Amino acid sequence: MSHRKPLDAQATGLMLLLCMVWALQQIAVKATAPDMAPIFQIGLRSTLSALLVAALMALRGERLQWRGGAWRPGVLVGLLFGLEFLVVGEGLRHTSASHMVVFLYTAPVFAALGLHWKLRAERLQALQWAGIALAFGGIAWAFLGRSAGPAGGDNPLLGDALGLLGGAAWGATTVAIRCSRLASAPATETLLYQLAGASVLLLAAAVASGQTRFTPTPLLAGSLAFQALVVSFASFLAWCWLLRRYLASRLGVFSFLTPLFGVGFGVWLLGEPLEPAFLQGAALALAGIVLVSGHGWLAQAASKWKRRAEAQGAAAVSRAD
């Protein structure tokens, strides 16, 4: 579809739902961590979701493109995606879900830096550099301004650092996709590479570290079903449907409600504590991320406002004459 629309009521409602779903995935993993280790959970959900995507591809008659070394970027993307959730899973053992979702969503900053280096068309503008400085300043404040007590885990400093590393891995995944043939590949193919990589890497890590024990509970079964069917499969397909029909810049800015939902759900559902320094740093980081990712949309909005103001001024002068 060549023409993409601005957000309407349907897209806004769906984006709100997706942001809540993406925020709840960290809550679901953290809530059931006593029943099953996070990396084992994410490995299993990735396996189930990969099977669903493979079945969907078979139904559509889609095939993976392996000739001419086309598999190489797929393997790279799978490893990066697996690394992202490996450190997220480990991080959730040490810090709160609300901290994790905020630090993970620093990914657009790392992606913007990588794309600036790799693609001329993605050169950062002055406002985006200011956003990057603001985001990293907020991250530093969230780390350095914390109190000595734990924040939802036994070692929140380590857990938060792993969340930040997860954001960097997510950003690197975005760069790898944009700078390879996967940029024009079907979304299902790219998703299958990612899920397969996460499945292999996380299940291997769970076995190697002895984190495969679990206690079967209704809560754990519901969490795994939610993560596999809703988060890793249905929400991604819904996101791709939105990207084909609506302006990506508007959708991207809207998606930054996810960390806000994540913090709220963590406090509400898990009773996680919040420190003033974390809240202040998170607010600065998210503001910087919006500047980086929403630069195009903000520039368009400012241009429209300027033109409207100039038109109103001209009309006022005309009436005065």
Which structural class do the helices and strands define? mainly alpha
Distance between the termini: 47 Å
Q: What number of domains?
A: 1
Shape estimate: globular
What radius of gyration results from the CA coordinates? 21 Å
Low-confidence stretches: none
N-to-C SSE string, H for helix and E for strand: HHHHHHHHHHHHH
Q: Count of DSSP E strands?
A: 0
Number of helices: 13
Estimated helix fraction: over 70%
Main sheet?
A: none
Q: What share of the residues does DSSP label as strand, in percent?
A: under 5%
Mean pLDDT: 86
What does this structure look like?
The structure is a single chain. The chain has 321 residues and is mainly α. Helix content is 76%, strand content 0%. It has helices spanning 9-31, 38-60, 71-91, 97-104, 107-118, 126-144, 156-178, 187-208, 218-245, 248-254, 257-270, 276-293, 295-320.
Fold topology:
Blueprint: H1 9-31, H2 38-60, H3 71-91, H4 97-104, H5 107-118, H6 126-144, H7 156-178, H8 187-208, H9 218-245, H10 248-254, H11 257-270, H12 276-293, H13 295-320
Helix pairs in contact: 1-4, 1-9, 1-11, 2-3, 2-8, 2-9, 3-7, 3-8, 4-7, 4-11, 5-7, 6-12, 8-9
Short summary:
With 321 residues, this protein is mostly helical. It has 13 helices and no strands.
Q: Which labels suit this protein?
A:
single chain; mainly alpha; 13 helices
